[in-house]
Amino acid sequence: MTSEERLPARYWRLWWAGAIDNVGNGAFVTAVPLLAVTLTSDPRLISMVAAASFAPWLLFSLPVGAIVDRHSRIALMRGAQLFQAVVVALIVVLVTAGAMNVGYLTAGAFAIGVGQVVFGIASQSVLPEIVGTRLLGLANARQYLATTIGQSFLGPSAGSLLFGLAVALPFGLDVATLVVSALLLTTLRGTSRPRLRGTEVPQRHAIIEGLRWLVRHQLLRTLALLLGVNTFCFQLGNVTLVLLATRELGVTQAGYGLLLTVAAVGSILGGLLTAQLVRVFGQIPVLVGALASNAVAFVLLGLSPNAWALAALLAMSGLVTAMWNVVTVTLRQELVPLDLLGRVNSVYRLLGRGLIPLGALAGGLIAHEVGIRTGYPIAGALRAAALVVSLPILIRVHRQGPPSAAD
After folding, report:
1. Cβ atoms of residues 172 and 91 within 8 Å
2. What is the DSSP letter of 1?
3. What's the pTM?
4. Phi-psi region for residue 195, left (φ > 0), alpha (ψ -120 to 50) or beta?
5. 236 with 379: CB under 8 angstroms?
6. What is the pLDDT along the chain (407 residues), one digit of tens a residue?
7. Residue 61 in contact with residue 349, Cβ under 8 Å?
8. Spatial separation of the C-alpha atoms in residues 293 and 304, rounded to whole Å
9. Are the CB atoms for 294 and 345 separated by under 8 Å?
10. Taking Cα atoms as reference points, which of 156, 130, 175, 182 lies closest to residue 260?
11. How far does Cα 287 stand from its chain's mean position?
12. 235, containing H or E segment
C-alpha cells in the first residue's frame, strides 16, 4: 500500500474505538435473546424485545440526522456511548438482584436503541471528514470488518460464554467497552463540525431538505427502498433464530454463540473481498449479485436440517450482506454533499433499521401461528420480488457508467 493509499492515524483511533465498542455490543446482542428465553417462551414476547431495540430508528432517525448535521459528530458519538453505558449498568443491577422481567428488558433494549441511533448516524457521517472521498471504499471495508469481528465473532462468543457463567457478565462487558470506546473518542481532536448551509433553518425544514435531495437521486432512492425491504425481511426471518437453533436443532447456549461466530466468517470474507470484486465487476453488479444470493440463502435457511447447515447458510448470507453494506455506504458518502450527509444517512437508517421492529413483530406472529421456520422462505421470496422490481433501474445506472451526485 502506497503512502497515498494509507489511512490516516486519526482514522485508526476511530477504528479502534468502534472495534472495542462492537465487541461489547456483540456480547449484548447475543445475551439479550438468551436472557429473554429464560424469562418467556412466547415468540411474540421475544419478538417484542427485538422490536423495541430497533423502534428508535423508526421514531428518531430523521430528527437525529438534522442534529448530526449541526453539531460535532464525534461529541455526539461519545455522549451516546456514555448514555448506553448507564442503561446497560442498570440492566446489570436488575439481573443481579433477580428483578429482571420482560418489561424491563424491553425498556432497556429501547433505551439502548436510542443511543445507537445517535451513534450510528454520526459515525457514518463523520468518516468523509477524516479520510476524504478517495479512501472511503477502503475505510468502509475496514470499518465493516471491525463491526463484523466484534458484533458477530468475538462479541457473541464472549457473550454466550459469559452468560453461561453468570447472566450479568456479558452486560458488564458491554458497559466496560462502551466506556473505553468513549474515552478513545476524546483523542480525536480537530475533527471539524459539518459545513452546513443555513444553520439557523428550523429543524423541520432541514429534515425536508435531506428528504428532497434523496428523493431526487434515482440510484440512492432505489437503494434506500431496497434497504428497507431487505432489513424488514432479515428480521422477519431471524427474529426466531434463537428458537430455531435451541428448540428445534438442539443447540446449547454456548453453541448458539458459536453458531453466530461461525456465521460471521462469511461476513469477514465479504468485507475482505468487496473492494476487489468492485474493481473487477463494478458496484452495481456486486449489489445485484449480493441481493440475489441473499434471497436464495433465506429460502434455504427455513429448510436447515441441522445446525451445520444453518451455520453455513448464515455465513453465506453474512458474506453477501457485507458486500451490500460496504458498497452502499460508500456510494452514499461519495454522492451526498457533506452538509447533507447526516440527514440523508438518517433517512437510510430510518428505512434500514426503522422497519426492523415491524419485521420482528411480523416474524413473531408468523412463528406463533404457522411455525418457527416459516418466516425465512417468506422473507426470501419478498427479497427476490423487490430485486426484480428494482433491476431495470440498476441495470440502466450500470450502463450509464459511474453514478454522480446529480444522477
Report:
1. no
2. -
3. 0.68
4. beta
5. yes
6. 444 467 788 888 888 998 899 999 889 988 888 888 888 777 778 778 877 887 887 788 778 877 887 778 888 999 999 999 999 999 999 999 988 888 899 999 999 999 988 998 888 778 877 887 677 777 877 887 788 788 777 887 788 889 888 889 999 999 999 999 999 998 876 555 555 444 455 667 777 777 788 888 888 888 888 988 988 888 888 877 878 888 888 887 667 767 777 777 888 888 788 878 888 888 889 999 999 999 999 999 988 888 888 888 988 998 898 898 888 888 887 787 777 777 787 777 777 777 777 887 888 888 888 888 888 999 999 999 999 999 999 988 888 766 655 55
7. yes
8. 16
9. no
10. 156
11. 17
12. helix 218-238
Neighbours of 197 (CB within 10 A): 11
**Cell numbers representing residue 120 in the block:** 450510528
Residues 6+ apart with CB under 8 A from 204: none
- Look up residue 216 and give its three cell numbers: 431526487
Q: Which domains does the chain have, with CATH numbers?
A: 3-186+203-400 (1.20.1250.20)
188, 76 in Cβ contact below 8 A? Answer: no
Tell me the CA distances in angstroms from 40 to 36, 43, 79, 198, 372, one per residue in order.
6, 8, 33, 51, 16
Residue 252 phi, psi dihedral angles, 5° rounding: -80, 175
Place of cell 437508517: 349
